[in-house]
Design a protein that fits this description.
137 residues, mainly alpha, binds zinc ion
Length: 137
């Protein structure tokens, strides 16, 4: 199937955000975020081997990674430490471009605030300080 102009420009934006993410990681003293086992383990450990949205147990094999701030041309989230969180694949498929706090409210019910706090402490630990208007939920 032919790809639309918007698909192509979004792919280009994603490549760009991935590259900027590498520089942002290095500027903060981290090894660039990538598909490394040690990095997956760090994410899993921080989040107690649970999906950061719904809380289901996940491991290296079932781990899916979501960008809190989506990697698209309006949100401009980076592929970098502090913006990538561990989740289950159903949550990753359902969240799409939704604001993450809104998504947690749908998935986590009475656990929502605890999950939000955990994610915010992760973002703060990693000093991911880039915010955009579309991040406000
Ligand atoms: Zn989940």
């Amino acid at each position: 199937m032919a790809r639309s102009k918007s698909d192509i420009s979004n792919s280009a934006i994603r490549i760009f955000l991935q590259e900027v993410g590498k520089f942002y990681d290095e500027a903060r003293g981290y090894e660039a975020f990538g598909p490394k086992v040690a990095q997956k383990d760090e994410l899993l450990d921080f989040f107690d081997h649970a999906c950061c949205f719904c809380g289901v147990e996940i491991d290296r094999k079932s781990l899916s990674q979501d960008h809190l701030i989506p990697m698209n041309k309006s949100a401009l989230g980076l592929h970098a430490w502090g913006n990538v969180v561990p989740c289950c694949s159903p949550c990753n498929n359902q969240k799409q471009q939704k604001p993450w706090k809104e998504f947690i409210a749908l998935k986590a019910g009475s656990e929502s605030q605890a999950r939000i706090d955990k994610i915010e402490s992760f973002v703060a630990t990693k000093k991911y300080l880039i915010t955009t208007d579309s991040q406000q939920a």
